[in-house]
Amino acid sequence: MGTCRTSNNDCRGLSRSDPALLKGDGITHSAGSPHVDQIYHLASPASPPNYMYNPIKTLKTNTIGTLNMLGLAKRVSARLLLASTSEVYGDPEVHPQNEGYWGHVNPIGPRACYDEGKRAAETMCYAYMKQEGVEVRVARIFNTFGPRMHMNDGRVVSNFILQALQGEPLTVYGSGSQTRAFQYVSDLVNGLVALMNSNVSSPVNLGNPEEHTILEFAQLIKNLVGSRSEIQFLSEAQDDPQKRKPDIRKAKLMLGWEPVVPLEEGLNKAIHYFRKELEYQANNQYIPKPKPARIKKGRTRHN
């Protein structure tokens, strides 16, 4: 008998003797089985502090990891969906960003391990499609949030919510005029499933076109939490994109997909989850803190 609890997985009350587990109602076979016909490749560090801390591991995950998944897809004749990123557009000179835009990326900057790793992963997917006949789908995912996201991963949503709940200053890098567009996690999941089951082999943006400045976003979270936290302005991070907004006309037309969860509704769900986590962790003598502003020589960005 036992239970488990981690910062991003909730299985309280789940016993090792649970009949459902004993009957094998969970994962029952290896991904290497010929019965696999769809592979969702989402493996990669995605938080700036994490991939700046270990850029080599990030590059290996996005290159060697993708190569391994493509090899598996070829071997078992499965379709592979790559979770790529809006970061392939870098600090864009085209706004909003459509799938035909090649991007504006610093290949040797502090973010390059992630940005270029994903660009290389996309290239490998299409090389395998053309040379080996592997079916691929590529989702360029824009900023996403929701319950169960890591509370201390250093990204803007988790940072702002955690800071507001704990009465700490909300840290904004630069003037706060940078823009982002945030989608709720269930919208993203629906988009990924729609893309996987479609006939669209070219890249597709999955994101919410509702654009806000970082400062507006900080004020919104502060108000939703009911916090008296101040907003603290810090020096701007290197290579921080000034604008980020997806053009989702392709997803609408070819997948019949668009986000449906209003921003405030999604944020309230995330705030509720964070508040419950803080209560639980306080009882267990653990309170997460936002990641430090500086990781090695880089800084976190408004992801």
Structural features, described:
With 303 residues, this protein is of the alpha/beta class. Helix content is 38%, strand content 15%. It contains nine helices and 14 strands. The strands form six sheets. Strands 3-4-5-10 form a four-stranded parallel sheet, with helices on both faces. Helix 7 (214-225) packs across helix 9. The longest helix has 22 residues, at 55-76. 39% of the residues are buried. Residues 1-9, 12-16 and 293-300 have low confidence and may be disordered.
Reconstruct the topology from this structure.
Layout: E1 4-5, E2 10-11, H1 19-22, E3 38-41, H2 48-53, H3 55-76, E4 79-85, H4 112-132, E5 136-141, E6 144-145, H5 156-165, E7 170-173, E8 179-180, E9 183-184, H6 185-196, E10 204-206, E11 212-213, H7 214-225, E12 231-234, H8 249-255, H9 263-283, E13 294-295, E14 298-299
Parallel strand pairs: 3-4, 4-5, 5-10, 6-9, 7-12
Antiparallel strand pairs: 1-2, 8-11, 13-14
Helix pairs in contact: 3-4, 5-7, 7-9
Protein structure class: alpha/beta
Major sheet size, sense and barrel closure: 4 strands, parallel
* Integer-rounded radius of gyration: 20 Å
Please give the share of residues in helix.
25-40%
Listing every helix as H and every strand as E from the N terminus to the C terminus, the arrangement reads: EEHEHHEHEEHEEEHEEHEHHEE
- Counting DSSP H or I runs of 4 or more residues, the number of helices is 9
Strand order across the biggest sheet? Answer: 3-4-5-10
Kindly report the average pLDDT value: 86
Principal-axes shape call: globular
The protein's oligomeric status is single chain
Residue fraction in strands: 5-15%
| SS elements, strand count | 14
